[in-house]
Known about the structure:
Belongs to the ATP-dependent AMP-binding enzyme family. By secondary structure, the protein is α/β, with parallel strands linked by helices. The protein has three domains: 8-154, Rossmann fold (3-Layer(aba) Sandwich), CATH 3.40.50; 181-407, Rossmann fold (3-Layer(aba) Sandwich), CATH 3.40.50.12780; 410-506, GMP Synthetase, Chain A, domain 3, CATH 3.30.300. Helix content is 29%, strand content 26%. It contains 17 helices and 27 strands. Bound molecules: adenosine-5'-triphosphate. Adenosine-5'-triphosphate (ATP) is lined by residues 165-169, 172, 278-281, 300-302, 304-305, 330, 389-391, 403, 406, 496.
Amino acid sequence: MPNCTTFLDVNACNRSKTALIIPSRGEEYSTARLLDQVNRIGNGLHRIGIEAGDRVCIYLDSSPEYLISYFALWRIGCVAVPTNRVYREAELLYAVRDAGATAIITDTPGSVTAGKIRKEAPALREVIAVGGGEGATAWADLQGSSPYLRPAHCRFDELCQIQYTSGTTGRPKGAMLTHGNWIAAMDAEREVLGLTGDDTYLGIYPMGHVGVSWGISALRAGGSYVVMERFDLEPYLDLAERYRATVLAGMPPVIHSLLRSPPGTEKRLASARLMISGGGPLVPAVWRPFHERFGIPVVNAYGLSETIVVGTGTAIRPEHYTTADEFRSVGTPVGFSEVRIVDENTPERELSPHEIGEIALRGPSVAAGYWQMPEETASVFLPEGWFLTGDIGYLDESGMLFITDRKKDMIVMSGWKIYPTEVENVLMEHPGVRDVAVFGCNDEHRGEVPVAAVVPAEGGLTPEMIVTYAKEQLAGYKVPRKILIVDKLPRVNGWKLMRKVLREQYCPPRP
Ligand code: ATP
């Protein structure tokens, strides 16, 4: 039976190779140095009483310490509880308390030791401070431990992570991920990107999100992972050029801003053979011109926290680029994943090609359920292994998947179903629109009505211009009843759209 997994199991054959690059700190880690640190931290955690099965929260910015924490915890049989550094106290407290974490690894120990978290999370015994701090165990102390670690014995079906969902539609749920889920996900990602030891991956996804898996997969394939803490166009281009990145992490807003970049930018991405996009819909108005201008195929990947992204999910790959229509699809299943469309009210009933229903996924990276949420678990993790994603879509006759929207975002106006993504795709085609979000506001007479928040590309765009355009392109009931011109849309880490924030901000309270 294999031990707890880390990327190192496969990669160990080339120990002197540069694995991790952190340009903001001018640091590089060879595989050997990374393994040394992982083992020391693992032993150090043991020394201060962290035991196999303990849940340990990680509250750091994307950094080597984040990855080292993941790997060390996995190797000693603990459960990593990654959180996002942008979390405020209440959000962090929710994760620490819900997971019953016994320790937290952070670079802001004061926010934990002095604040509410210490008082209101009774299971929390240890605060481990990267950079040190009063009342905390210093990371440097743990680094002084032995570099020889005997990994814990653990099974594929054993829990190694509680991954809180982004919470874009409600209270975050803790997806329970196992070692087996992770191993399958790394294999699936290697397959979909064709990763080898020659690849250099430029990563921008926050390490507290399952999107970090792309970087871990690159390491496991023997490649290098360049860490960018957050996206900014100029430094991104700089890093892609300097490190000759072959695989670029992207997301719809990143691809959009590359598209608006000055002529000549193409040369700076000359080493790139693939761009990843995921986490939200990539509209054809952005995708197609990006492909035409840069010639870099976008791997539009679809998955969730509950499936470790494409571990059990789908992706469009360069070989799918045959017809223009595919600029709307998220491709076909990856690895051992299976996809089917089921009736929203009777999930046992599978629908035929082109019939719209709920997307269900099955495969080796589907989480074991939600942490301490038996009812939510039973409602979406079905006994035959199918996981109901809450996304709406259809398959075409060749098995390509198309997402129309998320169940919870669907707007029902006087019985008419309106899919916000469809309306957004149309409005994005307007040359004056830089970004757009469509959401449903409650309405006394019609139940709900569609509202659009629009970020203009330049001054002069008026709500009337948008309405006129929408009326030419869309059936009357889909035309937003109200247009708001805004500076910015609420996105988690500049990425996932938070429609619920827009609803709270702009809709009248529900009666
Ligand atoms: P919560 O469930 O708490 O609201 P979340 O679902 O936003 O959080 P994630 O697991 O990070 O958290 O996001 C998964 C969702 O992101 C999917 O269900 C889907 O709606 C959307 N998504 C992911 N990839 C794509 C893609 N390539 N195209 C369109 N939508 C995508």
